[in-house]
Structure formats: structure tokens, C-alpha cells
Design goal:
alpha+beta, 4-stranded antiparallel sheet, 4-stranded mixed sheet, 19 strands
């Protein structure tokens, strides 16, 4: 029994020692765990960036990268040391890596030099233009415009004139030179000259024929096949319905075209339509070609009563012919009667020197003047005046039985042309051009807009460079332009227009003689006194140049049918008028070019 108790006491003592040792071991283990956790927390911040970089590099190489995160697991077994179990967790994604990567700061060495490049904006496809349209009752054809050579050398026109008549003067053709390039935008043009029938509706709608066209005379009945019916209306014989209208002043022609929502063509448009073959890139001397063809035109042939009449051809008409009668005389674009039949008013003021200073794009003639331009020749003129480059002046208040017209319409309205223009961001050249035309303040604004796309440092450099260049260039250009303009004004100041009072100095009919008035010319005198132009010229052999007669000059009168000396009523259309003296040189004869 005593021995048993002794053994029991020993066992309890050993057990107590074991329990104490276990407790110490557990305490030590807990201390290790805490120290390990503190080390993990301390090193976690340092390893995060390295782990992220490693993950990003591995993912960029296509590898499957996992970040290893240490996790502690502690057992209660006193004899085992605590172990660290490694568990695999997903690595950061590519987006996480991008967010974690710092953005590098730009340096002076790495800042690129800004390059200004235009941004091309696509142009919307325009709606195809119709090849023909109708303006009221008139058919119009599309002319696509483009670049062509306008004008002709006076020497070439003089050579052609000499084939038809004597006494040709190179001065008649000086205004048609030099040959120069012109760019024309698309437009529509009447296929035919305006007819008597077409003009009647407009004429009968006028409240005042005498002053109803911009305050000027619209129409002169004595120069036309249209007549007043005595009841306030105008009529024309049906046989003349399709003949070209004659007797309208330039103001009347312009008003008629406006009534049709159209306009008179510019001189450049007219010449392009008369001569230019866009398919072959060729200009013709006459609408149909480079050689004259009397069967393609109504001009002064065997049916004409003038002394310069040609006996080689018979066009079938003594004066005007129905429009469109000469199929083989059509121009390259398909317009009829661009040569012969009647001269045609165009919109431009006449300037003998205009071709030497004409703008290249869509020229519209001088800003003002005393005469308008007529084109194309007529039934009373020799064939050479139907050449597509021949141009002559006529006062806008003039009417004549050999002057007519046709109308034109813009193919593309101005607002549509502007809307179709591509928008571009300003290039360096644009910046310089704009800066040269603006003040320094405007230049700075343009530079600021361009510089917005660059860095602040580059912006300052661009501002300084562009501002310096544009300011210097603008100053030099303005100085040069001012000097040139001042010199041009001093050397090219046009003379003041001559004002003629026709009522103050009228012509005087003395029966056997006639005293020339301030606004008389031979054709007008012959018509007003009822004698033929040829007879009047024959009775006055002292006249060397029929185009040069002077106020106060005494003319011999040929015998007249009426013994009393009063002019008989005209039974045929009067001859085409010439501009009154003084005017630029005109070819002699019965018409503007006749």
C-alpha cells in the first residue's frame, strides 16, 4: 500500500511537470506565430510592387503566373514545430497591373516636336446635276464649266477678216487679246436664242415699256418684228414666232432673264459654251470648227442687201432665221446660233483692256462702264465676226434689229457650294496665310488654336515662332501690296466717261443735205431718212471711214422716194445700230460688225 501511494505520487509529479512543459511550449509557439505575422505584414508592402511587376511581365509573355501568399497553420501537438503552408491565390489582372504602374513624367529630351497635320473631312457626294432643265418655256442645257483658253490674238482675227472684206483694221480686234486661262463653274444656258413668242408674255406684263427695266427703256418696237396692237398689247405675226427677238435693250434683256429666275450669261460663260470642247480639250475658232462654213450660219450672204454681202452662200433668209435652223452650226456643248442670226447681249461691261487684268476664276467683267458686250455676229455682218472670240461694245440703252440674247442659270447655288467645301484644321501654311491678312491679335488667336494639341512647352515655342514669322511676313506683304496698288492707281486711272446730250444737239434734215447730230451714225441716219445705207455712203465719197463721222458734219443726201423729203415708213427691219461717237473703234458697215 505504501509502495502504491509512493508510485502514485511520482506519477502525479511527472504529469504536473509534463503539463507545465506543454504550457510553456504552447506559449513559445504563440510567440513564434505573432512574430511571423508581424514580419509578414512588414514585408507585404515591399513585395506588392515586385509581385505586380512580376505578374505583369509573366502575363505579357503569355505565362500563367500565380502569386504565392504565405498562410499560417498551428497545431496543438506539443511535439511538432509550427509549419507554414503555401496556398496559391490568383495573380492580379492586366487592368490591375496597368493601374498599379506609374505614368512616366515627360522630360525635355523626350518631348516630341509638334507636327501640325490637316484633318481631311470627307466631302459628301453631291446630287448629280440634270443634263437639261426648263426655265418657263425655254430649254436649258448643263455646261460643266472647267478651265479653257479665252480670247484670240488680234493678228489672227485680222487675217480672218481679210478673207471676207476690205479695209479690215487690227484695232477692231485688240480687245480680244491676250489669250488667257479662265476657270468657270457649272451653269445652265439656253439651247436657243430667246424668241419673239417667248418675249411676248414678259413684254405684255410690263407696266411701263419705256422705263420699266431698271428705270430704262426695255424694248424698241421700231427695231423688232413685234408690233403694238393699238390696245396696249404687243403682237407678232405667227411666221415670226420662232425667230430670235430683236429690239430689246440690255436692260430689257436682263429684266426678261430675271423674270425667268435666270440671268444673262457672263462673257466668259458665253465663250466657253460657244467654243470649248471639254472632251477633247480643244477650242474652236467658230462654234462648229476652225474653218468658216457658210451653210452653218445665218450671215450677210446673197440675200443680204449690204455692199459687203457674200455671193458664195445662200442661207435662205434675208434677215433673221428661225432659231435652231442650222444643225451643223451647233457649238461643242450643243447650243444653236452661237454664231450669226443676232448678236447676243452678255452681262459684262465692256473694257478694251479687261483681258490683261482678268481674274482666272469666273471673271464677270469690269465693275462699270459706258457699254456692254455683245457676242456672236449677226445676219447683217460678214462671217468673220461670228468667230467665238470676237467682242464688241454697245451702249446698254441701245436696241437694234440685229441684237438679241439668251439666258443662263447657276448650276449650283452659292450656299451649296460653300456647304460642300471640306473643313480642314489649320495647317502651318493656313496659319501663315490667315496671319498675313489679319491683325496681330487675330494671329495670336489662330496660333493658340493650333497649339492646343501640343504640350505646354511646345505651345510656347510654336507661338513664338509662328508669331514672329507671320508678323514679319504680313508686314512685308502689306507694304508691298500697298506700294503696288498705289502705283497701279497712279498709272492706270481710267479716264472719266464722256457724257453726251443727244437732245441738245440733234441731227438736222435740210432735204438735200443732213447735219450730223451728237448721237448720229450712218446706219441710224439712213434708217431715219428712209434711204439705204449703201446709197448714203455712195453720196458721200469724202467719208474715208464710215465709223468716223462727227457732230456738225454736213452729209449729201441721195434721192428719196418722197419728194417732200420726209422719211417714208419702213417696210423692212432697220439696220443694226452702231454705238454713237465717241466709242472704241468699230468695224465699218451696217451693223455692229457689218
Amino acid at each position: 500500500m505504501a509502495v502504491l501511494n509512493s508510485n502514485l505520487m511520482r506519477f502525479l509529479l511527472i504529469a504536473s511537470l509534463l503539463l507545465s512543459a506543454c504550457a510553456n511550449l504552447e506559449s513559445t509557439a504563440n510567440d513564434l506565430v505573432e512574430n511571423s505575422a508581424i514580419q509578414e505584414v512588414t514585408g507585404a508592402g515591399e513585395s506588392t510592387n515586385d509581385a505586380s511587376d512580376t505578374a505583369s511581365e509573366a502575363q505579357g509573355k503569355g505565362e500563367s503566373n500565380l502569386q504565392v501568399t504565405p498562410t499560417l497553420s498551428v497545431t496543438n501537438e506539443p511535439t511538432e514545430e509550427p509549419t507554414i503552408v503555401e496556398e496559391a491565390t490568383p495573380s492580379p489582372t492586366a487592368e490591375d497591373s496597368k493601374e498599379a504602374s506609374p505614368t512616366p513624367e515627360p522630360t525635355e529630351e523626350s518631348s516630341p516636336t509638334p507636327e501640325i497635320t490637316p484633318t481631311v473631312t470627307s466631302i459628301p457626294e453631291p446630287t448629280p446635276l440634270p443634263v437639261s432643265i426648263t426655265s418657263k418655256t425655254a430649254d436649258m442645257l448643263l455646261i460643266m464649266g472647267g478651265e479653257f483658253e479665252m480670247g484670240e490674238e488680234a493678228s489672227r482675227l485680222l487675217e480672218e477678216c481679210a478673207l471676207f472684206r476690205e479695209g479690215c483694221d487690227e484695232g477692231w480686234f485688240s480687245s480680244s487679246q491676250p489669250i488667257h486661262l479662265v476657270q468657270i463653274k457649272p451653269f445652265y444656258l439656253d439651247v436657243y436664242e430667246v424668241t419673239n413668242e417667248a418675249f411676248l408674255e414678259f413684254l405684255n406684263g410690263l407696266e411701263d415699256v419705256e422705263a420699266g427695266c431698271e428705270g430704262q427703256l426695255c424694248f424698241n418696237e421700231s427695231d423688232s418684228q413685234i408690233e403694238a396692237d393699238g390696245e396696249g398689247q404687243y403682237v407678232v405675226d405667227e411666221s415670226f414666232f420662232e425667230h430670235p427677238l430683236a429690239g430689246a435693250t440690255w436692260y430689257g434683256a436682263s429684266a426678261y432673264c430675271e423674270w425667268r429666275d435666270a440671268r444673262l450669261p457672263t462673257e466668259a460663260e458665253w465663250e466657253l459654251a460657244a467654243s470649248w470642247d471639254s472632251e477633247n480639250g480643244n477650242k474652236s475658232f467658230y462654234p462648229w470648227g476652225d474653218e468658216f462654213d457658210g451653210s452653218a450660219i445665218n450671215y450677210c450672204d446673197v440675200n443680204c442687201e449690204e455692199t459687203h454681202a457674200s455671193s458664195e452662200f445662200d442661207d435662205g433668209f434675208a434677215n433673221t432665221a428661225p432659231v435652231g435652223s442650222y444643225e451643223n452650226g451647233r457649238s461643242p456643248v450643243g447650243a444653236y446660233d452661237m454664231a450669226g442670226n443676232v448678236w447676243e447681249w452678255v452681262n459684262d461691261w465692256f473694257d478694251d483692256e479687261y483681258y490683261r487684268q482678268s481674274p482666272e476664276a469666273n471673271p464677270g467683267g469690269s465693275e462699270d462702264g459706258d457699254s456692254k458686250v455683245v457676242r456672236g455676229g449677226s445676219w447683217i455682218d460678214t462671217g468673220n465676226f461670228a468667230a467665238t472670240s470676237v467682242r464688241f461694245p454697245a451702249p446698254p440703252v441701245e436696241s437694234g434689229n440685229s441684237i438679241g440674247f439668251r439666258c443662263a442659270v447657276n448650276a449650283i447655288p452659292e450656299e451649296e457650294v460653300l456647304a460642300q467645301a471640306p473643313e480642314e484644321e489649320p495647317t502651318a501654311e493656313v496659319v501663315e496665310e490667315v496671319a498675313e491678312e489679319t491683325t496681330e491679335e487675330a494671329t495670336a488667336e489662330v496660333v493658340e488654336e493650333v497649339a492646343e494639341e501640343t504640350t505646354e512647352e511646345a505651345t510656347e515655342e510654336v507661338v513664338e515662332e509662328v508669331a514672329e514669322e507671320t508678323t514679319e511676313e504680313a508686314t512685308e506683304e502689306v507694304a508691298e501690296e500697298t506700294t503696288e496698288e498705289a502705283a497701279a492707281e497712279d498709272s492706270e486711272t481710267p479716264p472719266a466717261p464722256v457724257s453726251i446730250n443727244c437732245d441738245l444737239y440733234p441731227g438736222v434734215d435740210n432735204g438735200d443735205t443732213y447735219i450730223v447730230g451728237a448721237c448720229d451714225w450712218l446706219t441710224k441716219i439712213a434708217n431715219s431718212l428712209g434711204v439705204s445705207y449703201s446709197a448714203l455712203l455712195a453720196a458721200n465719197p469724202q467719208i474715208q471711214d464710215p465709223n468716223l463721222i462727227y457732230p456738225g458734219q454736213v452729209l449729201n443726201m441721195p434721192p428719196r422716194p418722197d419728194a417732200s423729203g420726209s422719211p417714208p415708213p419702213s417696210t423692212s427691219p432697220p439696220d443694226s445700230p452702231q454705238p454713237p461717237t465717241p466709242q472704241p473703234p468699230q468695224p465699218p458697215g451696217g451693223g455692229l460688225g457689218g
